[in-house]
Structures are given as structure tokens and as C-alpha cells.
């Protein structure tokens, strides 16, 4: 994976290029390249995974009286099929990188090449003769791409920090951005970069910059169609799609490993990878995370019925893998608050971010590429809010039924300007309205498809943001096989009755994985990403918040009421801020992240 950036119709001297490069190095430590002509500068920082010599960027191609220049962040998983198709059309290749194949694909088919790509990507192609820039992002949104229309020009980059490094670019938080932080965060409205003037190209979208203007369009979304496969055929199709996606995503010229939590999703990926590597006489490296004192302090609950450690051991024995276990302390998590905020460029999921940042840093010591089980729950319906009829039928985002409580924290100034319930519900309703659902669909099926779209467009994006930023901060490429668009599209059309096979979370996936996992893992009740239960973590966060409460100069008090935050920090929240895991300590940490973020990024609060 890599970092890409561009500066169009704006000054780009050596100082500016150096500024950009300094923000891109963590994503791409192995090489740096620049292309410049009269109006356009494209930049690329590379993490070398495939074809070290033949994959250098920016990459150029002369074809049919046009000169194309590409910068690309991502990985194609159908490279060889595309190469064969393009070769039949007369294209010739000098290396074996997917970068070269992508460039030829765009030269041959233009925008329509997107319909042929299976992968995760964000890329830009400059067409010199036409004076046109084409931008695109993968269907699911695994790879990021931010942009800003600034002073008559265009800035784009893999991360917000790169855009902010452009000389004179202001970091402004207005009322809308404040609403995003407090009412939606750590999620974001699709396309919103929180800071004023910064947007994100949405998943499944592409755009063109030409003659001083930028226009974007959606080239893919989840679409409904009748599901005509029998249950047995559906099981076989799911088994094929999932195992094929995993095998495709093992392609690499550098060492790979897998995340292993002992849950269904990561265990299935690890099982397929171990089997494939064994055919080559190789042993899989697995990586697992736990927390100091969790056995001592863990209390089973509705959402987290057991800890992972014993199940990880079962899988390690089953896989005959090379295991790596990483244990984190409360102090380490606390110390990672600032670094994880800088990695994400925004306040994030508190210790869920902190732990992943530290985890990835350790994994990178052994491998450059790792496969992870994110997004199976969104696609196969694994979360509690899919399966609890009472929660399922409530209006609003099911992972954040806390708008009233969040709004109660707002400062008097923001309370007067923001209609909190309207702000959140309008976005919720827009997603429902945009969901593609066949007219004859039953009420239950309609609701389940709405739930998939809500999770796909919102909650899943927060997790993908987290995964990309926390891993790439340590130059670790993490691939997510369940984000193969073929799986998402097929499963969207599968009836809920099949997905909920035998009343199990992700029952259909479990049935499809039969024979690939031990029964203790195959039918283990879902448990979310692990967090620390050590009370020291809460104490550390409370101590820091208590110090902040005494600091009248903190910018946080322009957003929130100090007295309300004091009550929150001293109490025990009966409601989660976000998802299943962000309770009192994580919410305190999130608010501390906001304070640090405003100060560190020099954010100008324009809240009038």
C-alpha cells in the first residue's frame, strides 16, 4: 500500500512537495516519486509489496496519442485476468505489478475499467493532452481519498494531514463539523472530512477535474435483485466466494500473516491461509492481542460473553501456525491516545484505536502484509442490532442510540444552533431512502436490507478508517477479504432467513465454513474486538480529564459544557457512546482526543 497526493492549478514548489512528502512517509517508507507539469503535481510514497522494480510510481504510459500518468494506492486481486484480457487487445507489459495493469486498463477502457476491477484502491490518472484528472475509489471504501477545492485549484491525498500541510490551508471547524464530532463521531457522514472545505470521495465513486471544476459520480452501490439459489446452492456459493477472496488476497512478494482472535471471521481467514501456505511448504504467522489483567477483571456480558485467549489457543493448535501473542497494558493504551489521533487525523474509537495502533506496530516487526476479518458482521448480519427485533425496529443508527445524551453535553452556543435530533435523523432517513430494495419485498426483508445499507455506509466505514490509519501508520498493509465486492453484492440479495441459519449470528457463513474450523470455533458465540477491563485504564483517563476540567483555556469548552462532562467522567454511563464497546472510559478518551486534536492541528473554531 502507499500514499498518493496531488496539487492542481496551485503552486507546488520544492518546499510544498517536501511538506507533502513528510506527511506521506509512514504510508510509503520505501520510495517516493513526483511528477510535475505546468498545472499538475502528482506525488506517490510507496510501501513495496509486489514487483519492487516494475511498480515504481508515478507511472507513465503513451497510448493512442495520449500520455497517462498514474498514482495509485491499493491492490488488485484479479490482476492476472486483466493482464490476459489486455494482452489479447495488444497491450505489452514490462513488469508484473498490478500498478502497470491498472494503468493499461484505464488507457484501454477509461472510466469503464472500474467495472472490471476487483480490489481495494484509490487512484488518480492525469491525461496530459486532455488536461484532465480522473480520481476513483474502490467499491467498499477500504482505501481512503480526501480532496479539497481550494483557491481555484484541487488538492487530493490519502490522508487529511497531507492536505493540511499545503501552505496557508486553514484547519477550520464550523458548526457542521462540531455536529459531526459530537453527534455522529467517531463516525462521519459519507463524504464528510469534518474540517471545513475537506471532503472524501465516497466509496464506489469516481470524479473528473477538468477546466477548473470537479464533478463526481457513483459507479457502484448495493443493488437488489431476486435471489433464486436454493439454500444448499447459496452455501456453496458463499463458501466459494469467501475462500476465493482469501486466496486472491494472499498475493505478495513480501511476508504475510493473519490477525487471529479465535472468532469465526479471523479463524476462517487463518485456516484458508494456513492451508494454502502448507501447499508451498510454508508456515502461517498469526497475530493475537490481549490485555494485562483481563482474566482478573473481565466480567461476561450480553455483547462480550467470553474472552478470546482460550479460543486463540484452540486455533493455534489446529493451524499448526507460528503464533505471536501481544499483551498490552493500560498504561500503553493511555500513552497511545495522542499518536492514534495523529494517525487518524480525527478523534477516533478511543482504546479500540489505541490497541490496534500498538498491535500493528508489533505485527510490522514480522510481516509487511496481514489479512483481517473486518466487515463480515455488516455483510452477514452478525451484530446484535441485526438480530434483536426491538433494537432493529428503532429509528436511528442502531450503534449510536444516544443522540439525546450527546446533545445534552453541547455548549449553550451550539445548542442554540444545532437541532441535534433533526441533524442525525435526516442522515439516517436519507440512507433509508437511498437503499435499493425491490418493491415486492416483505416488511422484514425490507428492514434487513435497510440495516445492511446503514451498516455498510456508516458503521463499516468507521471500522475501515480505523483499520487503514492504524495499520498504515506503521507501514503495515492490512487486507480485508470480506470486503470483496462480490461477497457484498451477493449477500445483499440473500434472504435474511438464510443468513440467520438455525438462529445463529452469521449462521450462513458458519454453515459455509463447515469442515474448515474446529466446532468450538465454528459455533462460538460472537464476541466483539477485545478491550481492556483493567480499572487502571479508567483511572488514567479520569485523571487526565480531571486535569482538563480545571483548564479553562481548553478549546473543548467551546464545544461542550464543563459541568456536564464532569458528571459524565465521574459516573458510569448506562448507554454506549458508539457501538458495543464505547462506554465510560472510552467516551472520556474520545473527548480527550477532541481536545488534543484541536490543539495539535491548530484547529480554528468558527462556531458563530
Mean pLDDT: 95
Largest sheet: 6 strands, antiparallel
Label the overall shape. Answer: globular
- First-residue to last-residue Cα separation: 41 Å
Structural class: alpha/beta
**Parts with pLDDT < 50 across at least 5 consecutive residues:** none
Number of helices: 26
Number of strands: 19
Note the beta-strand portion: 15-25%
Our Rg estimate from Cα atoms comes to 24 Å
Give the helix proportion (percent range). 40-55%
Strand order of the largest sheet: 2-3-1-9-8-11
What does this molecule look like?
By secondary structure, the chain is of the alpha/beta class. 42% of the residues lie in helices and 17% in strands. The chain is built from 26 helices and 19 strands. The radius of gyration is 24 Å and the shape is globular. The strands form 4 sheets. Strands 2-3-1-9-8-11 form a 6-stranded antiparallel sheet.
List its salient traits:
single chain; 608 residues; alpha/beta; six-stranded antiparallel beta sheet; 26 helices
Task: Describe the SSE topology.
Elements: E1 2-8, H1 14-24, E2 31-36, E3 40-46, E4 59-63, E5 66-76, H2 79-88, H3 98-109, E6 119-127, E7 132-137, E8 146-150, E9 153-157, H4 160-164, E10 172-174, H5 175-184, E11 199-200, E12 205-210, E13 213-218, H6 231-248, E14 256-259, H7 264-279, E15 285-291, H8 294-297, H9 309-319, E16 322-328, H10 330-335, H11 337-344, H12 351-363, E17 369-371, H13 376-380, H14 384-387, H15 389-393, H16 403-407, H17 412-417, H18 420-434, H19 443-472, E18 477-479, H20 485-493, H21 496-499, H22 507-512, H23 519-522, H24 535-549, H25 562-570, H26 584-600, E19 604-606
Parallel strand pairs: 10-19, 14-15, 14-17, 15-16, 17-18
Antiparallel strand pairs: 1-3, 1-9, 2-3, 4-5, 5-6, 6-7, 7-12, 8-9, 8-11, 12-13
Amino acid at each position: 500500500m502507499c500514499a498518493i497526493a496531488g496539487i492542481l492549478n496551485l503552486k507546488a514548489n520544492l518546499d510544498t512537495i517536501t511538506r507533502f512528502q513528510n506527511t506521506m512517509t509512514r504510508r510509503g517508507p520505501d520510495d517516493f516519486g513526483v511528477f510535475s507539469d505546468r498545472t499538475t503535481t502528482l506525488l506517490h510514497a510507496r510501501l513495496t509489496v509486489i514487483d519492487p522494480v516494475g511498480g515504481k510510481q508515478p507511472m507513465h504510459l503513451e497510448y493512442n496519442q495520449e500520455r497517462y500518468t498514474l498514482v495509485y494506492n491499493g491492490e488488485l486481486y484479479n490482476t492476472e485476468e486483466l493482464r490476459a484480457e489486455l494482452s489479447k487487445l495488444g497491450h505489452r507489459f514490462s513488469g508484473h505489478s498490478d500498478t502497470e495493469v491498472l494503468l493499461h486498463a484505464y488507457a484501454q477502457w477509461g472510466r469503464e475499467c472500474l467495472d472490471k476491477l476487483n480490489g481495494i484502491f484509490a487512484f488518480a490518472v492525469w491525461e496530459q493532452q486532455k488536461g484532465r484528472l480522473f480520481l476513483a475509489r474502490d467499491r467498499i471504501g477500504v482505501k481512503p481519498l480526501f480532496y479539497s477545492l481550494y483557491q481555484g485549484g484541487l488538492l487530493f491525498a490519502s490522508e487529511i494531514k497531507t492536505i493540511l500541510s499545503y501552505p496557508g490551508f486553514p484547519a477550520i471547524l464550523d458548526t457542521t463539523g462540531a455536529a459531526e464530532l459530537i453527534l455522529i463521531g467517531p463516525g462521519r457522514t459519507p463524504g464528510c472530512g469534518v474540517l471545513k472545505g475537506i471532503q472524501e470521495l465516497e466509496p464506489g465513486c469516481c470524479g473528473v477535474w477538468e477546466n477548473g471544476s470537479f464533478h463526481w459520480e457513483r459507479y457502484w452501490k448495493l443493488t437488489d435483485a431476486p435471489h433464486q439459489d436454493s439454500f444448499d446452492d447459496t452455501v456453496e456459493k458463499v463458501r466459494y466466494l469467501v475462500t476465493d477472496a482469501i486466496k486472491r488476497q494472499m498475493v505478495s512478494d513480501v511476508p504475510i500473516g493473519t490477525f487471529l482472535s479465535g472468532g469465526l471471521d479471523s479463524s476462517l481467514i487463518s485456516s484458508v491461509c494456513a492451508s494454502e501456505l502448507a501447499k508451498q511448504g510454508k508456515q502461517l504467522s498469526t497475530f493475537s492481542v490481549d490485555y494485562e489483567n483481563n482474566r482478573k477483571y473481565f466480567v461476561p456480558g450480553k455483547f462480550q460473553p467470553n474472552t478470546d485467549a482460550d479460543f486463540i489457543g484452540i486455533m493455534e493448535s489446529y493451524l499448526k501456525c507460528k503464533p505471536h501473542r501481544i499483551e498490552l497494558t493500560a498504561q500503553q493504551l493511555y500513552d497511545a491516545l495522542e499518536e492514534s489521533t495523529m494517525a487518524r487525523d480525527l478523534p477516533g474509537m478511543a482504546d479500540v484505536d489505541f490497541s490496534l495502533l500498538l498491535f500493528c506496530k508489533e505485527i510490522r516487526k514480522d510481516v509487511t502484509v496481514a489479512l483481517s476479518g473486518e466487515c463480515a458482521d455488516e455483510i452477514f448480519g452478525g451484530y446484535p442490532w441485526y438480530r434483536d427485533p426491538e433494537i432493529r425496529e428503532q429509528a436511528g443508527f442502531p450503534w449510536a442510540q444516544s443522540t439525546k445524551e450527546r446533545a445534552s453535553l453541547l455548549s449553550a452556543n451550539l445548542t442554540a444552533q444545532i437541532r441535534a435530533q433533526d441533524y442525525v435523523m435526516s442522515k439516517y432517513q436519507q440512507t433509508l431512502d437511498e437503499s435499493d430494495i425491490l418493491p415486492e419485498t416483505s416488511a422484514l426483508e425490507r428492514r434487513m436490507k435497510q440495516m445492511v445499507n446503514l451498516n455498510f455506509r456508516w458503521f463499516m466505514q468507521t471500522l475501515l478508517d480505523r483499520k487503514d490509519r492504524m495499520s498504515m501508520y506503521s507501514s503495515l498493509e492490512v487486507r480485508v477479504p470480506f470486503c470483496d465486492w462480490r461477497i457484498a453484492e451477493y449477500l445483499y440479495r440473500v434472504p435474511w432467513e438464510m443468513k440467520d441459519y438455525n438462529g445463529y449470528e452469521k449462521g450462513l457463513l458458519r454453515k459455509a465454513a463447515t469442515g474448515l474450523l474446529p466446532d468450538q470455533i465454528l459455533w462460538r458465540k460472537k464476541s466483539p474486538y477485545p478491550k481492556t477491563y483493567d480499572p487502571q485504564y479508567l483511572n488514567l483517563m479520569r485523571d487526565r480529564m480531571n486535569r482538563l476540567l480545571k483548564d479553562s483555556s481548553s478549546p473543548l469548552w467551546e464545544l461542550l459544557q464543563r459541568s456536564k462532562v464532569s458528571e459524565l467522567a465521574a459516573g458510569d454511563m448506562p448507554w454506549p457512546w458508539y457501538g458495543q464497546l464505547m462506554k465510560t472510559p472510552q467516551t472520556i478518551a474520545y473527548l480527550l482526543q477532541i481536545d488534543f486534536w484541536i490543539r495539535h492541528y491548530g484547529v480554528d473554531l468558527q462556531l458563530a
